[in-house]
Design brief:
29% of the residues lie in helices and 35% in strands. By secondary structure, it is α+β, with helices and mostly antiparallel strands.
């Protein structure tokens, strides 16, 4: 079954923020740890202390626990500031189950449109595919309630 059908279809979520593209990209990447909902979206749960996107192609996307243990979530496959970031995505799964998260940043009016596409569900296995609908809602909440609100709060402080 092609990935564009049914449970393998890519998830696409988009949000517009009132922030210049360069700052939006920096907020998303350099301050990932500040807006990502680590308590509810991590491997270590309550023991997770931070999460990081290393700023280069080949860099890691990972979390660090309070004890210093690191859990890899993926690997940066595209680093093109301030237009695009892409990384493999396999929290708590092996590299052979990599999915891909591609984030595009585009100037829109006086702000930036951030579009996230999560694909590769056909590689994720039956259990992950069963989570497709739930993941759609999660990405929507993460972009709108976590990232966009984080950016909005920072832009209000900057005014």
């Amino acid at each position: 079954m092609p990935e564009t059908e049914g449970k393998h279809a890519p998830i696409r979520q988009s949000v517009r923020v009132d922030c210049p593209i360069e700052e939006t990209f920096q907020f998303f990447t350099e301050r990932f740890d500040e807006w990502w909902p680590l308590a509810s979206h991590s491997i270590a749960g309550a023991e997770a202390e931070s999460c990081t996107i290393e700023p280069w192609t080949g860099g890691r996307v990972f979390e660090r626990t309070r004890s210093g243990e690191e859990h890899e979530w993926g690997c940066v496959t595209a680093w093109d500031p301030p237009r695009r970031l892409a990384f493999t995505w396999h929290p708590a799964a092996g590299d052979d189950r990599d999915q891909v998260v591609d984030v595009e940043f585009r100037v829109e009016a006086d702000g930036t449109r951030v579009t996230l596409t999560h694909c590769g569900w056909h590689r994720a296995g039956a259990q992950a595919c069963a989570q497709h609908a739930h993941s759609t809602a999660q990405w929507s909440n993460i972009l709108r309630l976590c990232f966009a609100e984080f950016v909005s709060a920072r832009m209000l402080v900057a005014v």
